[in-house]
Amino acid sequence: QVQLVESGGGTVQPGESLTLSCAASGSLLNIKAMGWYRQTPGKERELVATLNTRGTINYADSAKGRFTISRDNAKNTIYLKMDNLKVDDTAVYYCSAIGPLRDGDSYYPDYTFWGQGTQVTVSS
Predict the structure, then answer these.
(1) pLDDT over threshold 90, residue 63
(2) Residue 33, Cβ density class (10 Å: 0-12 exposed, 13-18 middle, ≥19 buried)
(3) Which end of the chain is more exposed for a tag (fewer CB within 10 A), N or C?
(4) Which helix (H) or strand (E) holds 90?
(5) Which of 24, 23, 35, 27 has its CA nearest to residue 1?
(6) For the chain, what is the mean pLDDT?
(7) How close are the terminal C-alpha atoms of the chain, in Å?
(8) Is 88 helix (H, G, I), strand (E, B) or coil?
């Protein structure tokens, strides 16, 4: 099992910056990738940025040039630095990790673990 705890959300004005953190704990040895997703009411959860164990980074078009994903392996933590925030960035941001899960007799090699989410509100 993997536990993910996000922090750093809040309310900011358009153009300001915010950095989210996600601390991971549990069975981290075989984690293949971690990332950030976001969701607004009535919409599906969408990718913001991902980072795999080889260091490959993937950003959504809406995040390119404004958001930066990074990790601190010593702290088992990933970050999402968000600059030049826009009203459309308002959402609940979720941390994710992909790794194996054994549940009784079932084995899932690429299970997605989720954090509880942190609210980001961009408003003037």
Answers:
(1) yes
(2) middle
(3) C
(4) none
(5) 27
(6) 95
(7) 40
(8) helix
Phi, then psi, of 28 in degrees rounded to 5: -100, -5
Q: Is 89 helix (H, G, I), strand (E, B) or coil?
A: helix
Give the mean pLDDT of 94-116: 93
CA atoms of 102 and 93, how far apart (whole Å): 26
- Listed in sequence order, the residues at least 6 apart from 80 whose beta carbon sits closer than 8 Å to its beta carbon are 19, 20, 22, 36, 48, 49, 67, 68, 69, 93
Share of the chain above pLDDT 70, in %: 100
> What is the model's pLDDT at position 27?
82
pLDDT value of position 42: 94
Name the token pair of 62.
């809406």
Distance CA 4, CA 80 (A): 14
Q: Which residue has the tokens 């989210």?
A: 20
Which single residue is written with the structure tokens 């899932």?
108
Residue 70's nearest CA partner among 109, 117, 30, 21 is 21
